[in-house]
Design brief:
9 helices; globular; three-stranded antiparallel β-sheet; 10 strands; Aminoglycoside 3'-phosphotransferase, Chain: A, domain 2; 2 domains; five-stranded antiparallel β-sheet; Phosphorylase Kinase, domain 1; alpha+beta
Length: 305
């Protein structure tokens, strides 16, 4: 079942043809599909070194090319910026073989995604994750600020989206309680916090684990300046109570920053539950688990100062 109304079909045969036609030096390398929770790209592995990513939603060619080029630039900037591996851009592919859009190739990173190897109880992983977030924050913004789209600016700007989520969740969740929660969260101010560099989508499918430690981070095309609290969504998507507190202490988060991070996680989770309930049950379950963790956290009743 397709996840999006305008979703493209990307077959293994199509990818094989595109690779052979556009990158003949890789003709001897096996191509295989990678099953996962990805909702933006279809993922294929080329040999042992490369990952091919094909946008799933139908769109115009040039805006898609611009988006892929922007993602590659962000990935290139992040490489070596932390002690944890991140993918390196390799090349952009062109439309062909029935696939209508440009596509990208990155380096392959070893490890198991956290969606398949849950690190939620690992204190060591919590320290690693805090190190990664802290190292991102230390990267120079070069004067850049939040671009103004998606998560990472002001919480109130997501009111319309949240109303859509509440309306679609009436038969799935305790919407009355969730509305009350958002009413409290949406008024949390930014305070004096300046934008820092963030990953912007630290969900389990984008985090690699090995032996309970952080082994690498994927989907880095959104790397850029945003609310420092944004990457704290990972505390709620990835960690249980004890390790979550370890991450908070490691980063030195005050009450306001912590509650804003919780609010960003809430906003993201609300969309996951209903949008993917039939087409990507694993993502829908992720949203439910995150909401359960947030609602179980009694600190929400306090007003941060």
């Amino acid at each position: 079942m397709k996840m999006h109304a305008n979703q493209l079909t990307v077959s293994l045969e199509t990818v094989r043809t595109l690779v052979d036609q556009q990158f003949p030096e890789w003709r001897s390398l096996p191509v295989r599909s990678i099953a996962g929770q990805g909702t933006v790209n279809a993922i294929f592995r080329i040999g042992d070194q490369f990952t091919a990513r094909f946008p799933l939603r139908s769109a115009d060619v040039e805006p898609t090319r611009g988006w892929l080029e922007s993602e590659a630039e962000a990935a290139r900037e992040l490489v070596g910026g932390t002690r944890f591996p991140t993918p390196e851009p390799v090349v952009l592919g062109e439309p062909g073989a029935g696939y209508p859009l440009p596509w990208s190739v990155q380096t392959w990173l070893p490890g198991v995604v956290a969606a398949d190897e849950d690190p939620g109880e690992s204190v060591a992983f919590a320290h690693d994750l805090a190190d990664f977030i802290g190292e991102l924050r230390a990267i120079d913004t070069r004067g850049r600020t939040f671009a103004g789209t998606g998560r990472g600016g002001e919480l109130q700007s997501h009111d319309a989206w949240m109303e859509t989520c509440f309306e679609h969740s009436e038969q799935l969740l305790d919407v009355r309680r969730l509305r009350r929660t958002w009413t409290t969260m949406r008024d949390l101010p930014r305070g004096a916090a300046e934008d820092v560099m963030t990953h912007a989508d630290l969900i389990p499918g984008n985090v690699l684990v090995s032996a309970g430690r952080l082994a690498g981070v994927l989907d880095v095309g959104g790397f850029g300046p945003a609310d420092p609290a944004l990457d704290l969504v990972s505390a709620w998507h990835l960690l249980e109570t004890g390790p979550r507190q370890i991450l908070r202490e490691h980063l030195g988060c005050d009450d306001l920053e912590w509650e804003r991070g919780k609010a960003w996680a809430f906003e993201q989770a609300m969309g996951l539950v209903w949008y993917y309930v039939e087409t990507n049950p694993a993502m829908s379950r992720l949203g439910r688990r995150t909401l359960e963790r947030i609602l179980a956290d009694t600190s929400l009743a306090r007003t941060p100062s």
